[in-house]
User: What shape does this take?
Amino acid sequence: MRNRLCQRLAALALVSAALAAPACAEGATPVEVRILAINDFHGNLRPPAGGIRIADPDDKTKKIVVPAGGAEHMATLLRQLRADRKNTVFVAAGDLIGASPFLSAMFHDEPTIEALSMMGLEIAAVGNHEFDEGKDELLRMQNGGCHPVDKCQGPHPFPGAKFHYLAASTVAKDTGKTIFPPYEIREFEGIPVAFIGLTLKGTPGIISPVSAAGLEFRDEAETVNALVPELKARGVEAIVVLIHEGGMPTGDYNECPGISGAIVDIVRKFDRAVDVVVSGHTHQAYVCEIDGRLVTSGDKYGTIVTAIDLKLDPVTRDVISAKADNFIVRTGVYASDPQQTALLEAYDKVAAPIANRRAGTIGETLSRTPGDSGESALGDIIADAQLAATRAAASGGAVLAVTNPGGIRTDITRKEDGAVTYADVFASQPFRNQLVTLTLTGGQIKIMLEQQWADPKRPRILQVSKGFTYTWDGARPTGDHIVADRMSLNGARIDPAASYRVTVNNYLAVGGDGFTALKDGTAPQFGIYDVDALFGYFQANSPIAPEAAGRISRMN
Assistant: This one.
């Protein structure tokens, strides 16, 4: 920043005491720049059901829910935050698409790309969910054109993104080059500001192995630091990093009394030339100072727009000051933008006949939130639906179904009449993974369950179908959490040498989420999509209510 140059110039005072004066003179008027930022939009074109939870202004010990989000309201807020500002830029820190509600996901997230382009988004880092459908599909998001399988489904040809994706740490192994540019330089009144965009190095472990094939995801800090000399050679002193990695704060949405997580160590490793960091991935909201740098994140699902105000020194061309505010996209405050409304209505016209199909009814909300053992009410029902869809001999002959918790994206919330639509079901299972029934031995099933702790810091507890029960011991070491003699199917202990037909989704079948044991399964039989299995289960079994937990038990 500015004081660093002043210090360097002061050190040269023996040569000329006058050198420090021009750069540090108070007469130069700073150039003001406003950066508007979002992260983890996940195709939420309409306000998410849960809004945003914040501290109650009247009682900080309590939480309240504020209705927030939606492309129509966000566009209006953005317009207001740009008003009377000479220099603005709208950026994002990844996961704009993927794991999206029906209106966006049905069209492979084309509506989201169009909506954000229409809002004036200019630069976006890639997140892990940008790779949900693979590199080639991500390139289509940038460049436009019809989907290779589903063709052109929308109300008009898909033009591609008007904004630019950045991927500084994602390298194609065959070329050694990044799949998108590593950075973009914008000039504000003659002062260059560099925006570096990248995703977390752990991306291969949380996307499909098929999607990760041929790609290398490099270390975040090493990637950024290697670019600093190149940027300085181009005359850049002000550097903003857009990174799809984040932390876990302890304060309210505009605070940061304490933060932990990967972003803390990453920022500390950044070259001192990095001035501001826009983060994401953890679905949290915070405005922090880490290692003397401003670090922000804007919650999830479009509920917040972060406004970052920079002052640039016209002489040193570095950042003098940086401050930020997280603005809630309050649906009751910001009117709907007419252009966004027209876009959504155009897609709705195509999607509505499918989205509004009645699936069934529920007696109460089906929650994806796990209990102490890792079991969730919605997870139980999804696993039961997958077993029901593949139990018949002709459909796979399954006796057990398991599904990954990361594939369950949202609760199925009870409406006033209890009705559940295809869109509701789709929102909970938006990846359209195909079911695969495999033959596994009892020993392989135990190995699969042990791999729930492949990352001990972030266990992934699989959801299991009715009739299968097991116990895990939190005090045992990694690789020995499962109590072997307390694994049973329909009351009979699992035999390590016996064979069982087990249904998983195709993401898990190829080793997704670290469940590599499933790659050893034999006699695979492919079935319907997971969302269609759940839809059919609702149709056949409504009304549906959550059952008492008990399939998964935890000791210690």
About this structure: The chain has 15 helices and 29 strands. The chain has a mean pLDDT of 94. The domain at 358-555 is CATH 3.90.780.10 (5'-nucleotidase;  domain 2).
